[in-house]
Amino acid sequence: MPAPRILVTGGAGFIGSHTCVALIEAGYQPVVLDTLVNSDARSLKRVACITGVEPVLVRADVRDAAALDRAFAAHEVRAVVHLAGLKAVGESVADPLGYYDVNLAGSLALARAMDRAGVRTLVFSSSATVYGDSHPSPIAEAAPHGPVNPYGRTKSMVESMLADLSRADPRWGIACLRYFNPVGAHESGLLGELPNGPPNNLMPYISQVAAGEREYLVVHGADYDTADGTGVRDYVHVMDVAEGHVAALHRAARRPGILMANLGTGHGASVLEVVSAFERASGRRIALRIGPRRPGDAPAYWADARSAWRTLGWRARRDLDQMCADSWRWQCANPHGFDDPVPALVPGAALFQNNDRGINIHSNRGHTHV
């Protein structure tokens, strides 16, 4: 039988492209709906290099009702993984209306299109920002919402909308996944995070410092009440997050109602611990400078991830060292992002060798040495 088709909104982005890999490996056929405003269609070529299957791309906006109707009709979609949206906290403060329009109105338009098409299985990309910064860690799903920026509020509002929908119509199966800090890259070195401009997140910034593209890393605060004075966060490998979507899809397809689940490792790592791990992975010293705290940053923030294991059978499997090693491999293989040529990828063959950068990958089926 043909593989079930899953509509993946925002599927050409960082988390989306890795989720496409996980879906294909689980026996699904992703159909990607993406504007490509903050993503690159060439990521889907890289997905094909890894899996042998290139996702179908529908270039459209999730707010476009007619485009959504055409996509559902043309591709016989069975379920949706909804990743499309804007996600920069600072940008959301500067442009709140844009964030409510894309994230909230886009999710509403998608849910309506799904209902018209009779597709009522949905995995929603939510965020740990729904909790705010006032809860002690580890943070469980039952913690009250208290988002402190428009981005977090849009995620919280979409969750509330979907909860109301599931109560009104028991035919829906919905899973809301609250990510903590997805980082890393696919182990092949073919997929990874590609920031537009200066990175907003720690890991790609460290990668660029290690590669010599930036002079140093600014550590925002070293006087927190933590073991080494720097902020602590729950970093989770992007492929673990991707596999979490597959587990949530299985659950939502079989169990009506709505589920909220944290995707995190269940423990935190400080900024300096991440720097040390990246130095081990890269063999490079990471120059850093201590700067002032950023307003609103919490000292420590990590997940209680036990519910995801109980309800989805999912837990994070990759540790911080692997997150750093995979990030460094991506950085070395793709210093210009998707403008760099794609390494040959065939089972058992060498992907690339770059010993002057500390990389020596023997096989995409075997072990990697960094």
What key attributes describe this structure?
370 residues; alpha/beta; Rossmann fold; seven-stranded parallel beta sheet; three-stranded mixed beta sheet; 11 helices; disordered C terminus
SSE layout and pairing:
Elements: E1 5-9, H1 14-25, E2 29-34, H2 42-51, E3 56-59, H3 65-75, E4 77-82, H4 89-94, H5 96-117, E5 121-127, H6 150-168, E6 173-179, E7 181-183, H7 202-210, E8 217-220, E9 232-233, E10 235-237, H8 238-254, E11 257-263, E12 269-270, H9 271-282, E13 288-291, E14 300-301, H10 306-312, H11 320-333, E15 353-354, E16 359-361, E17 368-369
Parallel strand pairs: 1-2, 1-4, 2-3, 4-5, 5-6, 6-11, 7-10, 8-13, 9-14
Antiparallel strand pairs: 9-12, 15-16, 16-17
Brief digest:
It contains eleven helices and 17 strands. The chain has helices spanning 14-25, 42-51, 65-75, 89-94, 96-117, 150-168, 202-210, 238-254, 271-282, 306-312, 320-333, and strands at 5-9, 29-34, 56-59, 77-82, 121-127, 173-179, 181-183, 217-220, 232-233, 235-237, 257-263, 269-270, 288-291, 300-301, 353-354, 359-361, 368-369.
